[in-house]
Design a protein that fits this description.
The protein is of the alpha+beta class and 158 residues long. It is built from 5 helices and 9 strands. α2 links the parallel β1 and β2. One of its GO terms (molecular function) is helicase activity.
Length: 158
C-alpha cells in the first residue's frame, strides 16, 4: 500500500475569469451617478454616469478621423500617413468614430465626445462600414443619417 500523505494533490488552474461584469453593473453599480451641473461643479476626479439627451451633432465635418494602429490620429504626408505618437510613417490606417454631441439634462448642457468603441456599440457598425455604406470619400463632410438619428434620444454617458 502507498502512503499518499507526501504526494501533492493535483493542482487546479483557472485559465479565464468567468466573473465578467455586465454593462448594467458597469454603468449603474460601479460608478457614481451625476447630473451635468454636478459634473461641472465637482472637484472630485472620477468616473461618473450621466443620463442625458443628445440635442445636436456638433462639427458635422468631423465625426470620424483616420487613425494609426495605436488609435491616434494620423496626418497625410507624401502618399502615406504620419503618426506623431509612433513617430513614423504608416500605411495601415483605420477610420474611427469621434462624434461630438451636445447633450442636455434637467440641470445643464455639455458637449460630450463619443469615441470609436462606444460609437461601434451605439451604432452597431464600425466606422469603416459606416463610411462604405453611405458612400463617403475622405473629403465628404456630411453626417450619415444613422448618426443624425441619435438626436433627441436619451442615453447613459460614462
Amino acid at each position: 500500500m502507498i502512503d499518499n500523505k507526501d504526494t501533492p494533490s493535483p493542482g487546479i488552474s483557472r485559465l479565464q475569469d468567468n466573473s465578467k461584469i455586465s454593462l448594467m453593473e458597469d454603468f449603474i453599480l460601479l460608478n457614481s451617478c451625476s447630473t451635468i451641473e454636478g459634473l461641472k461643479e465637482s472637484r472630485v476626479e472620477g468616473v461618473f454616469v450621466v443620463c442625458a439627451t443628445i440635442k445636436v451633432i456638433v462639427d458635422d465635418n468631423d465625426w470620424w478621423y483616420t487613425a494609426c494602429i495605436c488609435n491616434k490620429k494620423v496626418y497625410p504626408d507624401e502618399r502615406m500617413y504620419f503618426c506623431e505618437k509612433c513617430n513614423k510613417h504608416v500605411l495601415n490606417v483605420t477610420p474611427r468614430y469621434r462624434i461630438k454631441v451636445r447633450v442636455i439634462d434637467s440641470t445643464d448642457s455639455a458637449t460630450f465626445v463619443i469615441f470609436d468603441r462606444d460609437g461601434v456599440d451605439l451604432l452597431n457598425m464600425t466606422c469603416a462600414d459606416m463610411i462604405e455604406s453611405v458612400g463617403l470619400d475622405a473629403n465628404d463632410t456630411g453626417i450619415p443619417k444613422l448618426i443624425l438619428d441619435l438626436v433627441d434620444k436619451t442615453y447613459l454617458f460614462k
